[in-house]
Amino acid sequence: MFIINCPYCGERDQTEFSCGGEAHIERPKQPTELSDDQWAEYLFMRKNIKGVQFERWNHAHGCRKWFNMVRDTSNDKIQAVYKMGEKPPVK
Amino acid sequence: MCNLKPLNIQYLYSIYDQNMKNKYSIFSLIKNALSGHENWQRAWRDPEPKKEYDAIIIGGGGHGLATAYYLAKKHKLINIAVVEKGWIGGGNTGRNTTIIRSNYLWDASAGLYDHALKIWEGLSQELNYNVMFSQRGVMNLAHNLQDVRDLKRRTHANRLNGIDAVWLNTEEVKKFCPIINTSPNIRYPVLGGTLQKRAGTARHDAVAWGYARGADAMGVDIIQNCEVKGIKRNGDQVEGIETTKGFIKSKKIGVVAAGHSSVIANMAGIRLPLESKPLQALVSEPVKPIIDTVVMSNAVHAYVSQSDKGELVIGAGTDSYISYTQKGSHNIVEETLRAILELYPIFSRMKMLRQWGGIVDICPDASPIISKTQIKGLYFNCGWGTGGFKATPGSGDLFAHTIANDEPHKLNAAFNLNRFVSGDLVDEHGAAAVAH
Amino acid sequence: MSKNLRINKNNFIDQTTRISFKFNGQKLFGYKGDTLASALLANNIHLVGRSFKYHRPRGIMTCGSEEPNAIVQIGNDPSLTDPNVRATEIELYEGLDASSQNCWPSVNFDIGGINNFLSPLLPAGFYYKTFMWPASFWEKYEYFIRHSAGLGKAPTKSDPDIYDHQYSHCDVLVVGGGISGIISAKLSAEKGLDTILIDDKSFLGGSTIYQENECYKINSVNSNKWLANEIESLKNYPNLLVKNRTSLAAFHGYNYLLARESLTDHLSVNERKGKVRQRLWKIRAKKVIIASGSIERPLIFSNNDRPGIILSSSIKKYIDYYGVKTGENISLFTNNDSAYEAAISLYKSGVKVNVIVDIRKNSDSLIVKEALELGLKVLWESSVVDTQGYKRIKSFEVMKLSDDGYNVVGNRSKYSCDCLGISGGWTPMVHLFTQSGGKLKFRNEDNVFIPDENKTPSNQISVGSCNGEFKLNEIVVNTIENLKSFLSLNNSCYDGIKIICPDEKSKRNIWLLPSDKPIGKTKPFLDFQNDSTAKDVKLALREGFKSIEHVKRYTTTGMGTDQGKLSNMHALGIIADTTGTNMGELGTTTFRPPYTPLTFGAIVGRNVGKFFDHTRKTAIHNWHVKNKAEFENVGHWKRPWYFPKNGENMHQAVQRESKAARDSAGILDASTLGKIDIQGTDSSEFLNRIYTNAWSKLEIGKCRYGLMLNEDGMVYDDGVTTRLGENHYIMTTTTGGAANVLSKLEDYLQTEWPELDVYLTTVTDQYSTISICGPNSKKILAKIVPGLDLSDNNFPHMSFKNTKISNVNCRIMRISFTGEHSYEINIQSNYAEDVWIKCMEAGKEFNLTPYGTETMHLLRAEKGFIITGQDTDGTLTPSDLQMDWIIGKRKFDFIGKRSLYRSDTIREDRKQLVGLLTEDPKEVLEEGAQLVENINKKPIEMLGHVTSSYFSPNLNKSIALAVVKSGKKLKGKKLIVPMENKNINVTITDTVFYDKENKRLNA
Fold it and tell me: Which CA distances in Å does C172 have to C184, C249, C289, C476?
């Protein structure tokens, strides 16, 4: 189980958090302009990366804040956490 | 059109005959015992890859090997390779809790899984390999009124679909599996359940090995320790695969890579509606027979059976995050055992012998994908989530059909990729929250 | 049979405290400090069990957690019996009652022993090759296989014992209390770090603590004396916690470790009462020091499994620590020096050491010299080729090894014995290291897998023999040096330490020892518990199972309760030798947690029974209990289901309740509905985006029903939201959906629309909701809030008022889920029960009737109102529910909107919500039943299913809601509900059955 450094609360046990999947998938501003294919791409299609992934986490049993995390899914090592709206600190 | 060699029946039979000389039976066991078991043949060859195949299957798990087997057996393709990055059957085939059932809610799912169940029923004989399919029944428990509605709905749908499923009240549940705590005073009392008697378990390794032996006997090359590094395409037609053993050419590539499906898809430049998550399971130390069926409970999240060796086989849940580590979080195991002890307080002194994780590829609608893709000659069989083992024979059969004909069989037509565009999902969440 | 093999000289066993115990019904004695195994050996009992497959007699082989054979059933109380307990680990207590497992009728005469004679027919994987004829017979074969497999017997009654969890966050965790662990713990504590030292034994010191050999000296004193002082000195550190009888179970990522502390298993049954049996420690350590040691390997030769064949280091421990002779005529068979230490200990304790068979050509280390000086006979360059004796070894046969070690030469010579010690070298215990993600490397010179220092996860270190250091000087010096850098120490209290120890120079390893017989005629066991032999491994390889994981699975090597601690290395070695591969390339199988089997009860801790899951109760719960409510579980909530009176069944109670609600007045505790307080200047815009309908124009003081979708367009939740102020709303959600709705709303707010000024707070627990409905509800409310103008003009349907009840602020909404004139009182929860009672008193004259969820469901079904989760299942759009009116067509966007316009979501033949009436009005449909048009056409096409169904007392007929394909167009159509024993005819109707004109809302 990871230790996650919540950007608002500090280090906490993973069991306090829930994962919201891939990050930086912006909700389309004008959904009606999208084709069914494009909408499906937003709705369902995921990179599901093996390696360094940008993802969303929520401190569900804590401050309830959503934030972003950079984690290597091949070894579960967390490389960085950053607040929503901030630029990822690593590439 | 793809370039398939016409069938050479005689060649096929000569290979088959030669390899099946070592047919398994009690007589061959006795015969071999006399020679100290020195004369058993290899169950499958260990070939180097050829330059080109009529079809390549990526992934040497049960589904991939079954696909190759049925391609060779039913679709007259003999020049086939299965490439596996590790050892065959080493992924989810060898990591699951081996539950087999077909009592799914929707017509499409029921059709798919019951097709598989029917093949299971004769699989040991078909493969001449004892896969130990044991129809000890699978019971699904209801713990609240909505469970009751959902399970009854499923039972009615199953019955009309010709799938054996009956509703049991609490007393009948207790009678069928006396060690369940059916006291009305527990936190989530058992309000009843459904039973599919034809359902049960099988020996997971044997399924991979049996299909491998059968496919190999028909000339399929099973290439282990061969990792795919790239998919070569020419425009929208697939051309072959780059592997750790070099480039292998083929115009038909079927991907059956479970948790790693997206990794292969990314190589081909497409995206799939999948997330790969850790799913854990555990076994206890072996004890004398104590539970003779499979019991599943969605509401408290516990499912358990007992292996022939005597170990309690217990499936835990998935974590909420993507991970390829084959490890999950301890709290998932703890929650599962909590539920197990709620339903079976007599197991409290049992001991966990071994726990492990697998990587399961989960679709948004908890149903699989057996489908063509936008790339010609590239097919995917994935998204089985937590419950793919039970479908192995059917999945292989239908995927073989889809690859051979470049068209889905009617039983897997609903499980196409386009459903995520059109909105025609096969949502089995209700029935398959724990789809084991 | 029973004779005493105890010697008097002893520091560790309290020979003044005699303990009586039973084994297989026989009453025996041991001493305080014994394990069951040492006590049995002292009574000259070696045969303790039968093997898994061939039911061969098996004896005690080791003295620790690697024991494959001596696995016993403890106790026979159906709730307390423990299967599969290692006799080598369980401490003797007064009244201990142990018995052999997996044998019938007894361990001495076991019918299953016939399998041994059938063994030629039962090679590895035989079951894959047979039991296939006739096809239907597998389950019959399986019945017998299952009954002959398994080991001990599970308890058959609930476990009365208590298990506990303890969370700990320490600076340093040291795993293992041998010499390197002790040094580590002291260095860590010395630095002032918060340190925990755990060890699975009841005593600290590992194998050094009973090492009396004069060859081992630290700072000029015998190593055992030196270590005893060190252990004593640990008491000086208040920042050091030492936990004995605590076994490390799992080492997860991020230095999260689980350790099981055993608290009562060593006590007599009477002393256990009221105490916690086991405690699971959940430890987050900043740094972890693994000092888990190593275990001795057996040697692989024919019939190496007989009772009386014991690891040589275990023989040494039994004599030196427990004062127990494992035999009176002992020989040893070895490939390294450690057997000589055992031989010397035996010799000094007066036990006859017949010969030492050594596969090496010679050895000139100090320890061997000492043995030779004592006159012990060594057969160099020789190998044991076979043993005799069924229930106890009687003799063994030795042959000379060829120069290359591949063959044996010359003649067999036979030696009698009653115990044969074997030693195949040492295997570092790297389980924990690999569990944590570390990678191993192979060291060719002594054939060990050791931690690769370059592939070690951060903040952990392996020290001592688990790190491949076997000589005392290396263990001590390297541990100190490595820890200095690991813990950033400038100097240590051990600087300048001086160590003298023997130096083992000669090594020779043969994984499968040669025999003069073909392998087919031999029985060289690898996995003693699972009965897999070297032959099985070779057969697997011959059949193409090349990967180590395939071999393991095909032969079951390493899959017993010891998880291959003794067998895995030899299996690997034999594979490497047979296939001509280097062991390092072959790799190991995965070491899976737990290190030793872990009790389910300990994993679960206190979270069983009533603590299985938390229970949420409303503030009015006690009143419901007093008034005999039956409860329904809804999510975590307990909700009153119905209130039976005078022995009513559910049906009778519900008929009465629902009639009363429509005829006069009913009262419902609706407190479990989710309540979310929404504030901020963009609250209206926020609601516009998350609900399908429009919110900006809702007047302050008015309520509106809203439907929430998932982004894929499917109905997700619903409820009434009230505008309390310009920038203030209160939203209600379903009971089960409350938590998910809040987190979904937060998600959108924080991640998609951070520009919106909106704040969400859950107030579900803070406010209780009392709903009063029925034609007399207004009169009742008038009595409770006499000052409030309840006229339709002032307080119309779908509006709310702030008011007070007995000086307590409350909000009253005039909204209705039953179709009746109805109010919902929202009041701070601590006043809720009082207000409820006030309502009951005020309503007495109107027969105000409390009703539960079942009546609520019935009343709303009469009105065709949906319950999300019951009438919907995540596959229905608003249009499918015939609720097109609630979609704000002019709205630019809302969650799920785009999905409603995909090719399959606009299809007209989707399943749609309809009403159903049965041909026989008394016939109530089963919820979940399917609907078909033509029962005779196969395959039967199912058009939909019944979602809600009740007998309506107000309409005096059965009513139902259902979803049906193209249902919108099928009004009046007759369908069939096929049940198992009959077909029920139904007609599709409108979804509203009662008061279609909604007159009663204002009645």
Answer: 10, 17, 7, 19
Put simply, the answer to whether C550 touches B355 (Cβ < 8 Å) is no
Question: Is the minimum CB–CB distance between B320 and chain A shorter than 8 Å?
Answer: yes
- What is the CB neighbour count within 10 angstroms for residue C452? 13
The nearest CA of chain C is from the CA of A47 a distance in Å of 19
Do residues C58 and C47 lie in contact, with contact meaning Cβ atoms separated by under 8 Å? yes
Give the residue from C510, C540, C559 where a domain finishes.
C510
Distance between CA B228 and CA B84 in Å, rounded? 8
DSSP H helices, C191-251, are: 223-233
* Residues B161-172: tens digit of each pLDDT: 999 999 999 999
Tell me if B274 sits within 8 A of B262, measured CB to CB. yes
Residue ranges per domain, chain A?
3-27+41-83
Judge whether A82 is closer than 8 Å to chain C, CB to CB: no
Min Cα distance A64 → chain C (Å) is: 8
Tell me whether residue C129 is in a domain. Answer: yes
Answer for the pair C888, A21: CB distance below 8 angstroms, yes or no. no
Range 717-776 of C in CB contact (< 8 A) with A: 743, 746-747, 750-752, 754
| Residue of C89, C55, C58, C86 whose CA lies nearest to C73 | C86
Model's pTM, two decimal places? Answer: 0.95
Partners of C746 on chain A (C-beta within 8 Å) are 58, 64, 66
B17: closest CA of chain C, how far (Å):
17
When pLDDT is averaged across residues C579-605 and rounded to a whole number, the result is: 92
B263 Cβ under 8 Å from any chain A Cβ: yes
In this structure, what CATH number is given to the domain that contains residue C449? Answer: 3.50.50.60
Domain with residues A3-27+41-83, CATH architecture: 2-Layer Sandwich (3.30)
Interface of A with C in 3-42 (CB under 8 A): 3, 13, 18, 20, 26-28, 30-32, 34, 36, 39
Mean pLDDT confidence for B295-318: 93
Task: Check whether residue C223 and residue C344 sit in a common domain.
Answer: no
Per the CB < 8 A criterion, the answer to whether C82 and B349 are in contact is yes
Number of H helices, E strands in chain A: 1, 6
Return contacts of C112-121, CB within 8 angstroms, 24+ apart.
C112/C50, C112/C55, C112/C148, C113/C50, C113/C54, C113/C55, C113/C56, C113/C57, C114/C55, C115/C53, C115/C54, C115/C55, C115/C148, C116/C54, C116/C55, C116/C56, C119/C54, C119/C523, C120/B33, C120/B36, C121/B29, C121/B30, C121/B33
Structural domain boundaries, residue C342: 298-424+505-510
Regarding whether C785 and C660 lie in a shared domain, the answer is: yes
**Chain A touched by B422 (CB under 8 Å):** yes
Structure confidence by residue, pLDDT tens digits, B181-192 = 999 999 999 999
Q: What is the pLDDT of residues C113-158, one digit of tens each?
A: 888 888 888 999 999 999 988 888 898 999 999 988 889 999 999 9
Q: Among partner residues B272, B320, B361, which is closest to A19 by beta-carbon distance?
A: B320
- Residue B19 reports pLDDT greater than 70: no
Position C515 in a domain: no
DSSP label at C455? G
To the nearest 5 percent, what fractions of chain C are helix, strand and coil? 25, 30, 45
Number of neighbours of residue C84 by Cβ within 10 angstroms? 26
The shortest C-alpha distance from B247 to chain C (Å) reads: 24
Please report the DSSP string for C584-617 in residue order: HHH-----PSPSS-EEHHHHHTT-SGGGSS--B-
Residue of A nearest to B261 (CA): A48
CB count within 10 Å of CB C785 equals: 18
Distance (Å, whole) CA C952 – CA C923: 11
Nearest to A39 among C284, C746, C898 (CB): C898
